[in-house]
Structure formats: structure tokens, C-alpha cells
Amino acid sequence: MPSKPSARLAALTVAAVCTAASTIVLASPAHADSVRIHDIQGDTRTSPYAGEQVTGVTGIVTGVRAYGSSRGFWIQDPAPDSDPATSEGVFVFTGSSTPQGVAVGDAVSVSGTVSEYVPGGTSSGNQSLTEITRASFTVVSSGNPVPAATPVTASSVPAAYTPVPDGSVGDLPLRPGRYALDLYESLEGMNVQVSDTRVVGATDPYTELWVTVKPWEHRNLRGGTVYGSYGSQNTGRLQIQSLGSPAGFPDANVGDTLTGDTTGPLDYNQFGGYTLVANTLGALESGNLRRETTRRQHRSELAIATYNVENLDPSDDTFDAHATAIVDHLRSPDIVSLEEIQDNNGATDDGTVAADRTLATLIDAIEAAGGPRYDWRAIDPADKADGGQPGGNIRQAFLFNPARVSFTDRPGGDATTPTDVTKVRGQAALTLSPGRIDPASAAFEDSRKPLAGEFRFRGRTVVVIANHFASKGGDQGLTSQYQPPSRGSETQRHLQAAAVHDFTAKILKTQKNARVVALGDINDFEFSETTAILEGRGTLWSAIKSLPRQERYSYVYQGNSQVLDQILISGSIRRFSYDSVHINAEFHDQISDHDPQVLRFRP
Question: Which of 26, 286, 324, 516 is deepest in the core (most CB within 10 A)?
Fold first, then answer.
């Protein structure tokens, strides 16, 4: 220790216990005195010192996190070893207590326990973050140069994503020159830098955004990065957070650019995987992204849309914005299938299930915005039986323009009574319209039940099935330690897809040339097994696949533009146009996290 330690702090001891997560204790070497950071990090994903006490670990403070439940600071060894697989940085965890008396540029000596923290817990499948916990530290000197940031660039990030095709990356030796996941792991805790990066995920309510260092990687025409297959993970993506005040974080849209350098420690968290926690942020340069407007349907075309309005209830202030979206950007479709319509008092959990006020408020707003006076049909769910926000009782609902289409009412539909298929004057017909498909099935337990309705347009019948399949919550992330990540939520969606497919097949068996449209928030990709089950062998076809690959998306998640919302059609609908109308998912001021879809065809 130098003869003049910092007067601000001689030593500070902090004890902390990880909460809402897991700490893995592994077998460790017998000696853990005066180790270097790269010794602690090792050349695999877990530390060879996990569970051991270490003393006298030295480094320069590169960042201090003084907010949230995971507070602490990062240190980095200014004298690295020659092994690119061993990180020179590590996070010192101080729990929920703000680290006192330590600042960027301080040289510190740290003692504590090496732990492997799994954000989200071991069941999440996330990789672990090497930390020093229950730490005491001494500030040796202040005002030291911060170790130079390691650039993360298009040339430094490998094209290959994962070192294993099927299994756990676990304790495999890191090969940062060959695999993107290994590169990011080898930089865990270190001061890194990205420069002149394009935004591929808009700023969210948690003051986070996503950029890419590979601007050409599966690029779409609006500046995003398309997730078009399970093998298109898009290795150039990184989440950006800030160590500064959230008030200074930029409001970025997809296609914008963070010009100059964005620099800070590389963290790993539950919701974004590898994340650059910025001490300095690049300047925001607008890409001038504009909300799209689709064309109006021709007189002889039936226009059907699907739109997830994200937990809409009468207390919301977004009705006028949704009305503008439907009237100006969707051009007032003849039929609109709405997902996430909540009951009349929203999340208040008092047994209310009716949503007539919610729908009437939206219809009034649409008319005030210059749209038609829509009519509506829906079925109230049983209280708390359909998932979603507790007390909200979300459901699908149909809006339709009675000046253009008529609804064929066949009474009797309720929360628990299934609709069926019969034949009326030689044509397939629903026994209940509106009616729910197989509402007692285990496939739809604690999930939204499909809503079927029979419409007439220019003398032709069209059966529309509105869906909102089970969410992807609980699936492992792309940066999971297991590759490919487990998608456990698919199990229920596969059952749901099979139920809707079988119902559609019954319609088509009754009337071979029936016009059927199954649409909604499918919560799965156009290339997924869920979609394949729903399509069957020629029963339905996902019309978003008529678009060029770079235009196939309705949602942006972790910087990947992807498909969750779909419109599937039966074979009798041959000539059609399809549009994914990008008005929400790419924007920081979105009114929903989904983009609506519009299908136009001549029945």
C-alpha cells in the first residue's frame, strides 16, 4: 500500500446477500490470497475461486452503480495478462446499500467472497455473473487513469453465436475469437466501448435501449435487425443502460444512431443479457423514423386487422391515440380484432368482467377522429380465468363497420359454452356467433380463449377467429447458458394452435371453399412450430410470409425485430395484400408494444 492512502476512506466493509436470484458455490482452489482479477474470472464462465474468500484484489474503479437493488462498483486490473479469454474486470456487490467513499479512478484493494450470481435465479437458465460479495475494500489512491476501454466492433464480434449446438455452455473454455457469446463473457466486468452504433431497440420505460455494432446484420428498411430464424440471433446487439441520471437518457427510436463513443463496464442482467452500463453515452442522431400508414381498401376489398392495444381500460389516456392509429394509419379497416381489452375498471380486482365501457370509449374516440361508427362483439370471460393482469380480465373483441359488413348473430355464446360448426343452406356456419372455441380445454387454462365470429361482406360469409395465445414468459433468453435456449412456453401454444387448427379444419370439411381468417397475437414466430401446427397441411397459411423477409416483424424484443402478430388465411383466399403497419414497436413513445397487421382481399 502506498504511504498516502486516500483521506476519504481508509476502509469500508459491506456485507450483502443476493436476493431474488441465485448464488452458485463451486469447488475452488485451496489458496485464494492476493489473486488478480483475471485469476478470479478464469477462462470459463464460472470462477475457479467461486465460494472462496479472496484478499487484496486490486484494481481501478471503472464505474459505480448507486441505484437499484444490485448496487456496487466495477474494478479493472490496469495490468492485464496475455490471455484474451480471461476478463480483467469484476463487479464488487454492496447489496441494496449505495457504495460510499468510492469513485471512478480510485485504486482499491478488495477482500470478500467470490460468488456466481444468476440473475433471475437458476431456473431462468441465465448465465452467471462473477462477483465479489460481502466485500471490504480500501481506497489506496484517487484520480488514477481508468483502464482504456476495449472496443466492441463489427470485426471483433464473431459471426458464430454459441460454442455448443445443443447443451450447456457451462465450463467450456472460452474462445472469444470464435464465438460471440464467448467474446462477451471474456469482457464481463471490463470497461468496453462501442462507437457510432445504430439503435435497434427503442428506449423503454426502464431507460434502456439496444444498439448493434453490425449495422448490416439482417437489417430491415427502417433500421432494425430482423430475427428471422432460431439461428439468426444477431451477434452485434448490445443493451445500453446508463450509470448517470435517467433524466439524461436519450429518447431513441429504431434507426437512430448513438454517434461517438459509448463507454462503460459490461454487465450481465436478467432482462437483457450482456449490457454496457455507460459512464459516457454517445450523442443521439435522429434517423427520422416515421409511423407508417397503410393504403385504404378498395370498395370491393374486405380489410381485416389485428391490433393488440396493451391492457386498454377506461382509465387509460391512450384512447385518442389508438383511435388515430386505427383511422389514420390503418385507414379504418372493416373488421378489427382487438387483443388485450380489459374490463370496465381495469386491474381493479372486484369481480367486474364486462368491458362495454372500454369498447364504447374506443368506438367514440374513433368516430371523433373521423372514422366510422363501429359496432362490436365480444364475450366476457369468467373472472380471473383468462390470464393477463390480475383483475383486468383481458379478452379479444371484434370491431366492425356496419356500413360495410354485417355480423351474423347466433345467440348463446358465453365464457364456458363452446361454439361448433354446422351446415346452413350448404355452407359452414357457427352454432354460436360470437362464440368461444373449446373454452374448457386445458390448452386454454389461464389463457385467452379464441373468439369466433361470422361476418357477411358483399354476400359472402367470412369466419374470423380472434386469438391471443399464451405468452412467451418464462422462456430462456438468447444469452442463456443453455443453447439453444429452452422455450417451455411453447407447450401450451402448441396445444392452442392444434385446437384452432382442428376447428378450422372442421369448417373446411363442412365447406371446402369456406373463407376463414385466424388472426391475433399468436405470441410466436412465423417460422415456429406453433405456426406450423396452426397452419397444418394446407389448412391455413400465415400471410405475413408473403412479405419480404426483412419486412416480417410486428414486435421488437432485445433489439430483434420479430413476428408475434399474425393473420392466417384459408386456401380460398387467394388474392390478397398484407401489411405490417409499423406504428408502435420501433418507437420510444409507443402506445402499444405491438404493430397492427392488415389483410385486404376480395372474397
Answer: 516
Work out the end-to-end distance of the chain between its first and last CA atoms, rounded to an integer number of angstroms. 83
Question: Does the CA dihedral 6-74-154-159 come out positive or negative?
Answer: positive
pLDDT at position 33, please? 53
Mean residue pLDDT across the chain: 93
Instruction: Give pLDDT tens digits for 485-512.
Output: 999 999 999 999 999 999 999 999 999 9
- The β-bridge partners of 215 are none
Per-residue pLDDT tens digits for 123-147: 999 999 999 999 999 999 999 999 9
- Cβ neighbours of residue 215 under 8 Å, at least 6 residues apart? 154, 197, 198, 236
Residues 6+ apart with CB under 8 A from 586: 202, 222, 223, 224, 253, 254, 255, 289, 556, 561
Instruction: Compute the radius of gyration of the chain from its Cα atoms.
Output: 27
pTM over 0.90: yes
Structural element, H or E, at residue 518: strand 515-521
Instruction: Give the pLDDT mean for 40-58.
Output: 97
User: Which alpha helices (H) appear in 339-489, and where do they start and end?
Assistant: 356-368
Architecture of domain 12-141: Beta Barrel (2.40)
pLDDT bucket at 247, cuts 50 / 70 / 90: confident
How many other CB atoms sit within 10 Å of the CB of residue 590?
A: 20
The whole-number pLDDT of residue 95 equals 87
The arrangement of secondary structure in 302-601, i.e. its CATH architecture, is 4-Layer Sandwich (3.60)
Residues of the chain with CATH 2.40.50: 12-141, 150-285
Nearest to 149 by CA among 206, 76, 200, 212: 76
Give the Cα separation of 435 and 431 in Å (integer).
8
Determine if the peptide bond prior to 484 is cis (ω within 30°): yes
Size of the chain in residues: 603
Distance of CA 514 to the CA centre of its chain: 36
Question: Percent of the chain beyond pLDDT 90?
Answer: 91
Fold of 150-285: OB fold (Dihydrolipoamide Acetyltransferase, E2P) (2.40.50)
pLDDT higher than 70, residue 26: no
Residue 518 CA to residue 520 CA, distance in Å, equals: 7
Q: Are 241 and 223 in contact (CB under 8 A)?
A: no
Q: Which amino acid is residue 552, in one-letter code?
A: R
